[in-house]
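Hi there,

I know you've been waiting on this one. I reran it after we fixed the sequence typo, so this is the corrected version. Both the input and the resulting structure follow.
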Amino acid sequence: MNIKPAVAQQLRERVAIVTGGGGDPSIGRSICLRYAEEGAKVGILDVDEAGAEKVAHEIDAGGGTARAVRCDVTDAGAVKSAVATIASAWDDRVDILVNCAAWYKGMGGFRAFDEWTDEQWDRMMAVNVRGCWNCAKAVVPYMKRRRYGKIINVSSDSFLTGVPGFIHYISSKGAVVGFTRGLARELGEYGIRVNTLAPGYTMTAESIVQTQGRPGWAEAQRDRQALTERNELPEDLAGPAVFLASEDSDFVTAQMLVVNAGVACW
């Protein structure tokens, strides 16, 4: 980590909560590290407590400030308690929420749309969609008091491209876009900006596991990009996440920022 000088920090003294912040490599982890570098105090929420603690220790060791809390985003009560724990530690405030938690681990690869079970469909929607709703409900009261806040919901460009074999995942990520646009319209009067960050195929630990049964998958995804020198990495989402959390995007809301190296989206 490289904590920037105070005068250069875009998120200095902000309190940020990132769900799904554990994992290595992962998008959530990369966002947590970059937010800390930019001066934010970072609350890391993850059902994987050990993973969240590891990222928090990494931030603390690098001179930043972080706290990890185990949290299942499908449990509204647990989310409310976790957010209160983070807020109470840092001036009773939450300035930034990144809804990055998603069900991806353990999906078992690709399947035809009618081969997924009802339980798998419901689990996907519960984590990826209801989780965003639960977290927004928990943080918005803190943001309303200050009449300012940034909510960033992580979707996926698969909603735009329609990757076969992931019908429930793609559907959930489309719902995240709709949730973002509706929430932005509701919360604008309180100075709360709500946007979507949509990555392309990213070389996270879970993505690598999911595609192990398809040799050449990563290479094929790279060939679809306009920038073909490498595949997308978790760190590629950190800068855009800083932009959406910073004052530079104060006049941006209800939008989707696609970060996929120029993959054609219809």
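Quick highlight: Residues 10-259 form a domain with the Rossmann fold fold (CATH 3.40.50.720).

Best,
R. S.
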